[in-house]
Amino acid sequence: MTIQQRDVDYSHDGVALRGTLVWDDAQTSPAPAVAVSHAWGGRSDFEVGKARALAEAGYVGFAIDMYGAGVLGSGPEENAALMTPLMEDRPLLQARIARAIEVLREQPEVDAGRVAAMGYCFGGLCVLDLARSGSDVKGVVSMHGLFVPPEPATGSTISAKVLCLHGYDDPMVPPEAVTALGSELSAAGADWQIHAYGNTLHAFTNPAANSPDMGTVYNADADRRSSQALQNFLAEVLA
Fold first, then answer.
1. In 10 A of CB 13, how many CB atoms?
2. What residues make up the domain containing 134?
3. Is the pTM higher than 0.90?
4. CATH number of the domain within which 19 lies
5. Number of folded domains in the chain?
6. Using one digit for the tens of pLDDT, what is the confidence trace for 181-226?
7. Each residue of 136-152: pLDDT tens digit?
8. Interior CA angle at 101 toward 96 and 106, to 5°?
């Protein structure tokens, strides 16, 4: 087994984008694939590392790009400035992540009929919006993601299975937002799960998260439990 990696250049709406594809070259036929949508700072080594872990588990991982090739925020102010335009234009956000899924399906290593998407923080909102848009991906996973719905709501039936892995004490997503999402997903006919981890804040899967004032703190137990939940979900939806 040798894990291979290459950058994939693509574009959307005039913006040059760059994703990173990771796969195991021991695979002799196209494999199921998972897109990894980045947090608010942009596509970083964190997301590429998650794509690599997916490849080690037998999937093709694709760390997608929502901002532009090489565009990374250096801190909260820049990160917010990068994220806000997409948060305020949800049709653009949905079209951009749909383009990433299209590009992923075009890769020769990928079984185009077995594709899922996952995302962290802002990326969690992106994959939820992918499902909200009516995408035919097999499933989406929000990892400590934002739940803010688009306004107006898309009104689409959600065919993708949905898993949200959430810190119950996340100040960015209070309990009322969790119950609102559950109601929204039920109304859209989705097959959904929300796992809430007690005494757990935002960014709980990121070992570098250590900012109690912002509510972003790594939690090893929640990281381990959510990793297992993710594995179980992907094994189900990409079987």
1. 9
2. 3-237
3. yes
4. 3.40.50.1820
5. 1
6. 999 999 999 999 999 999 999 999 999 999 999 999 999 999 999 9
7. 999 999 999 999 999 87
8. 125
